[in-house]
Design brief:
- The chain is built from 20 helices and 22 strands.
- The chain is elongated, with a radius of gyration of 34 Å.
- The protein starts with 27 loop residues before the first helix and ends in a 7-residue tail after the last helix.
- The N terminus is likely disordered.
Length: 641
């Protein structure tokens, strides 16, 4: 029950925990001791049986002590063999055996019994926290329906290869990441993102492992192996997150190893020193006070509730689609006062769309069909946006003699008619006149000339994410003193987005090296704790340089996700402030537990030294406070952010 090999005092790892309800076998020893203690107390204080004295009474309480005391004695002995003398086990054994020695049998059994019960409840609290996260994340299907030899067969997801086609029926979980081949369906994404609202994904879109298919039978082309899928990556991150300890947690561990022996020697001094300074010295009285000291000195409330608090914070974040790679980053996130962000893919969707069509004496539908025909020969994101805009229109145009003029655009023939599509430099190159007001347009444009005559232009722009504006507002309201945007996009576009979102400062036309330089300049101010948010391969150096690197995980590059300390699964900028709120709530709970534990222990230590506290107060100062701290720690798992 209390053997250290069971590791009930550690939440460093996430073992396989089954939610099987109460295991009454674990409580049998405590129930036996409680029953015998109750009978002993009744015999002592009410019925006062004549035979219940001397050796009979000693034997009764000794038998009541053994079921809960033996596991602690064994654990204490193993610690001593390993040269770890000052543990909670050795302290509890010394205190309770000492109480027996001075005739305080009932109190000795009570201390060990409540200690054992407290340990059981602590173990239950830890297991509950682990179960919550396991239930949240371990939703990986055990089979996948894969198309092989013109028929679907059920196989282990580990055996499915990239580019194979899998089928997911209604109500089934997606086993692997893949590209949607069907027309579309809606999905429950709560296991990945914490969002309860169903998400519609259409042909060509990315579907992630762990999503639940809600609408119709679909087919996907697998894009990642099972081990690299989104849900596997999340589970791996959360399982390993507690390996990176927060500074507060590391400090408490070191402190506990110093604090416990110090209090032990104070207890020894409490027995010995009064002998030399008091005329009315009574050994049993001062030994009893020292034993109270030993009980109180156990750092239970700190060494279990603090890691459990961070563990709960990591779990709460994962339920909101935010993955912290360590409790150290969870703690550091609470100190962030400067947020630096990339633009494309972070604050904007990273997907170009046609925003406006302007023609000169030409039907817009015909204009877009002609433009789409020539752009279909290009792989540029803007070209893809134009093709996507008219993809549902029915037309067949013959495109040939297409040449790409670097830095200018495309030249070719559509239905044997000369077409130019590109920037204004392309038109100038071929001496084609156009309205010069076009040069003042900030957004990306494609200017078109047909038969060497200016025919119009299309504005293609990246859309700002729908929650980006609110995200920046919330940052300013929640302690972020400065918001900065760094982008490789042209400065005019960057400044326009900056003004719309209310960002404090922005810089455009930056190379990856320029971004690194800007963050290095910010870090020279030691009052700034900097979080950088990005999604691309070129953001990886800045993510590594910042105090906290945050990657957009759904559309972000693998390099950015691997380098980042925090991953936002939903790609929503608003989750940045959610991460900050969770980290601050976690820090608050940890500090509350530290203050609670030290305050109560200090008060009872003083009362115990002065003879005003009994073993019952000592039990509350140790296990009672530990239980209160644990209940406070798990509270974060129920908070809404």
């Amino acid at each position: 029950m209390l053997n250290k090999e069971q590791n009930i005092r550690s939440v460093d790892r996430l073992p396989k925990v089954k939610n099987v309800g109460i295991n009454w076998k674990e409580y049998q020893t405590s129930i036996i001791s409680f029953a015998m203690l109750s009978i002993g107390l009744i015999s002592d204080n009410y019925f006062k049986f004549s035979f219940f004295t001397n050796y009979v009474r000693l034997a009764w309480y000794a038998i009541a002590y053994l079921p809960v005391g033996l596991p602690v004695i064994k654990a204490g002995w193993k610690a001593i063999v390993n040269k770890d003398f000052f543990t909670e086990f050795t302290l509890m054994v010394l205190a309770t055996v000492g109480a027996f020695a001075i005739g305080q049998y009932a109190e000795s059994v009570s201390v060990m019994l409540f200690y054992a019960i407290g340990e059981l409840f602590q173990g239950a609290a830890v297991n509950k926290a682990k179960n919550n996260i396991k239930a949240l994340l371990d939703v990986r299907p055990t089979s996948a329906s894969v198309l092989r030899a013109n028929k679907y067969e059920e196989v282990n997801p580990n055996s499915v290869q990239i580019k194979e086609i899998i089928q997911i029926k209604v109500g089934e979980k997606v086993p692997l990441d893949g590209e949607m081949l069907s027309l579309g369906s809606s999905f429950n994404t709560s296991a990945l993102t914490g969002e309860s609202k169903p998400k519609s994904i259409y042909q060509g879109g990315q579907v992630l492992a762990g999503m639940l298919n809600l609408e119709k039978v679909i087919q996907l082309r697998v894009t990642k192996k099972f081990a690299d899928s989104s849900i596997s990556r999340i589970l791996d991150l959360v399982q390993n997150a507690t390996a990176r300890k927060a500074q507060t947690e590391l400090f408490i561990r070191k402190f506990a190893r110093v604090y416990t022996p110090v209090v032990f020697f104070l207890a020894v001094a409490l027995v010995g020193i009064p002998y030399f300074v008091l005329d009315t010295y009574v050994f049993n009285e001062w030994l009893y006070r020292a034993l109270i000291f030993l009980v109180i000195s156990c750092p239970c409330a700190l060494v279990i509730s603090i890691p459990l608090g961070y563990f709960g914070g990591i779990g709460a974040a994962s339920r909101n689609g935010i993955l912290f790679k360590g409790s150290n980053y969870l703690e550091l996130m609470a100190k962030v006062n400067t947020v630096v962000m990339d633009k494309t893919g972070t604050l904007t969707a990273g997907v170009f769309k046609v925003q406006e069509i302007v023609t000169k004496g030409m039907d817009k539908i015909e204009f877009m069909k002609t433009l789409s025909a020539i752009e279909s020969k290009s792989t540029h994101p803007i070209a893809k946006a134009i093709v996507e805009y008219v993809k549902n229109e029915s037309y067949t145009y013959v495109v040939d003699e297409v040449h790409e003029i670097s830095g200018h655009g495309l030249k070719g023939k559509v239905n044997k008619i000369d077409v130019l599509a590109g920037n204004t430099k392309l038109l100038k190159k071929f001496n084609i006149e156009y309205n010069e007001d076009i040069d003042n347009i900030v957004e990306s444009i494609v200017v078109v000339a047909i038969n060497n005559q200016y025919s119009g232009y299309v504005i293609v722009a990246d859309e700002v994410k729908e929650d980006a504006l609110d995200a920046i507002r919330q940052m300013h309201k929640n302690g972020i003193s400065q918001t900065i945007m760094l982008s490789g996009d042209k400065n005019a576009i960057v400044q326009k987005v900056t003004k719309f979102l209310g960002i404090d400062t922005a810089f455009g036309d930056l190379s990856p090296e320029d971004k690194v330089q800007k963050v290095e300049e910010l870090k020279r101010d030691k009052t700034k704790t900097i979080a950088f948010v990005g999604d691309g391969i070129n953001d990886a150096p800045v993510l590594a340089l910042s105090d906290v690197g945050i990657a957009m995980g759904a559309m972000g590059s693998d390099a950015a996700i691997e380098t980042a300390n925090v991953v936002i699964q939903t790609d929503q900028p608003s989750k940045i402030i959610t991460a900050i709120k969770i980290s601050k709530a976690t820090r608050s709970i940890v500090y509350q537990n530290i203050i609670l534990a030290f305050s109560v222990k200090a008060i009872v230590l003083i009362l115990g030294a002065d003879g005003l506290a009994t073993m019952w107060e000592a039990v509350f100062a140790d296990m009672g406070v530990a239980l209160l701290a644990i209940l406070n720690a798990v509270r974060i798992q129920r908070m809404m952010f």
